[in-house]
Amino acid sequence: MKKNSLGYARTAVFLAALLSTGVAHAAADDVASLYGPQPPANASYLRVLNASSQAVHVALAGSEAPQTLAPGAVTRFSVLTPGTPARVTADGKAVAEATANAAAGAGDAVTVALRHDAKGWHATRIVGRYERVDGLKATLRAFNFASGCSAKIGVDGNGPTVFAQVAAGAQDARAINPVSAKLVGQCGAAASAALPLPALAAGDSYSLFVTGDAAKPVLSGARDALAWPPAAN
């Protein structure tokens, strides 16, 4: 009886270990299913905003596919491997300003705004970080591409201020509770048209872009999305 009891005990321990391993694998599968494939930890990120009044065909380095951007539209973040320049072409021509200041570092997120004039396409870039401010709230980011403007962003109708001051060529970020609101961008007394925020949930990330100029600011926005994993060829 003692021998049989010992055998049963060994079998029970083996089954428990087997079940434990199965649970661990199932938990890992659940995590992978929840978060999806992740880019390399040392990657940097690049996206393009069309800040002009005409459509443009853009191609950017990394994982995002070439595409035509309507006025005010923005690409997803393209994932760049270490040392890859943040190269952008607009209508088939490289935009020199997009790759200025060398390649982005690990975790950097480069947003390139394209403008068009009689001499062709030009770019302004703002470098931030690809990270959430608070995983329990929504992250709101503000990018000021309006020259000569220290931008303020607040709730329409003299509501609360969301970003008190974002210098030209700079960006800021903050965590917010998911709310329904219309926002306006201001350069001094000049204000943009109201922009309704989409429904944001905890963990979501959304970017606001102030473009135009100090006399006529324009406020637009887009959800922060990642082009990962890369599309199959």
TrEMBL record:
It comes from the Bacteria. The keyword Signal applies. The keyword Signal applies. Residues 1-26 form the signal peptide. Pathway: Glycan biosynthesis; alginate biosynthesis. Belongs to the AlgF family. This is Alginate biosynthesis protein AlgF. It comes from Paraburkholderia agricolaris.
